[in-house]
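Continuing the series of single-chain predictions for the mutant panel. This is the parent chain; the variants come on the following pages.
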Amino acid sequence: MKSNRFWIIIILLLGSVLRLFNLEGFSLTNDELSIITGVKNCINLSDVLNKGVKTDGHTAFLAIFVFVIGKLFGWGAMALRLPMVIFGIASIWYSYLIGKKWFNPTIGLALAGMITCLEFSLINSQIVRPYSPGFFFYLSFIYYWSVFLFDKPINKSWIIFLVSLFAALGASTHYFCALSVGITGILGLFYLAKETWKGYLFIGILSLILVSPNWIVLMNQLSSEKVVSWIGYSSAHFIFTHIMYVLNNSFMVLLACLLPFLVWLTKNNSNRISKFQLLAFLFFILPYLGILIYEILVQPAVQSRYLYFSFPFLLLFFLSFLEDDRMSKRIALALVCITLVSSVLINKTYSIDHFSEFRKIAENHSQWDQEYNAKKITSVTLINSEKYLNYYFDELNINPPSIVYLNKKLKYKEIIRLVDESKKDYFVFSWSSIKTPLEIYEIIMEKYPHVEKQNIYYNSAITLFSKKKNNTSILFNQFLDYDNEASKYWIVNPKNLISKEGSTIESLNNKRRYSSKFEAPISQLIMEKEDNYIVASVNFESKKEIDPLLVLSLNRGTEKILWRSSHFKDYLSKSESSKVFLCTKLPMHTKPSDLLKVFVWNNNGDEFKITNLAVKIKKQSEIPASSYFF
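Parent structure:
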């Protein structure tokens, strides 16, 4: 007993150090800033529910919790993240209690130690999201639920209250935590006895009463505009990917987790699993199946973070084959040490960015304004809300620089207008946590081709451009010159050619639907699939809004391997001539014999003229659009 007490104290201290370390060292994330800026200026709880919750798609718990903490202790990252750390540390304690109660103290210590050290739980215990409190509430619920069903305590009233309270709190924290709570409640029905069924019924009723205020929030959310899922559909092998992700994407940790099972196989003749091993497996797999069904019926939803509440039971299932003997204690200690080494030294949890950057981008905007003279700079950013940078301007006591925030839906037209209208010497463009196409960089570099400074962060970047000579690498550059002999890469359509002011251009209309074409096998191009991208472009003239397509295709015989297009209407400028861009990286399975084609498709039969059809190959590593990271 004394030994177990010593080790759980060590584990809790280690968990505290790992979670408090570097707590302010990384920027608040996009999701953190969304909830913080959503409630920061609210006056009361009614305001929080209307502005911070109704259209958010999450339960009200976190918004109310952050509002209260912010009002009491301030809106700094430390004040808001510290409660998440406390929830995380308390979760370690309850994971120990569950492992000890279901199996033995050795398993409890091993479970607590792994949750302490795994990167998955470390990161989620630091950020201002519903995962850390929901994790704590759910584990607390499981522990007292186990006491009620399997210990049959004499004084049940306090146990009934605690089970009901933590069930309601867990369900109120996150909708998928509510799913785990509901699954647990249903499975509990199979373990009822004569002396427990009335109390269990009361727990169900009391839990529903306590969680009922959140039904009002849910109804309001369902009646408002539907929140569209930003994640894609999960793959068929997601569950295996998730297990590896939970285990630090480390085969070393996976093999260490399988070791207790292998030892058990050598010792156990019956090879039967206990009811708690079955429960551990069901508590892990059933929430996944529930979310998968939701994804099939409603919208994409399967991702690892939504399965955070159930992941301890994957670990518990692996660890449940440990016994309470000296060898098992050594295996448990080795498991925890391997996990710690994997997180801190191999995965470098504290030295690698896991989230998009906002703080440094705010600082960079301010620093460059001072260094290059704000009057000589046009600053533009593409982020989900201007409140995010304004939060840091306020927290860092920075005088907010003049920044134009791009409209996500009109980003091409807006950036074209801003570049065209800019008379400044410099142009700063930043983005964070949002899909940022390479085309935006190409539009800017038409007028500002020189990269003066550039800071690249995880899924975010900021670049200072100037009008000096281009200093980025152009590995291949071909444009169609009708007045000179066309290169071997171009197939000219002579029916389209007309003369204008002494130059030859192409005219497309209802009868002429396809332009001249660039065509070359990949083997003749300078291509590194991992680092290069293709830039296709063309100038067009039209007196009215038109919508042909600039097309890039990759063909393997009669099979299309890749087909991309850019709409002319997205690039229409106020000047006489507009320019369309189409940028793409080639698939990794591209072969040297594959044929690259670039052309204009006048799919609607519009009447317009085109010039300067061109194809370039550039280095992706020099242009940090969002495709740089994924």
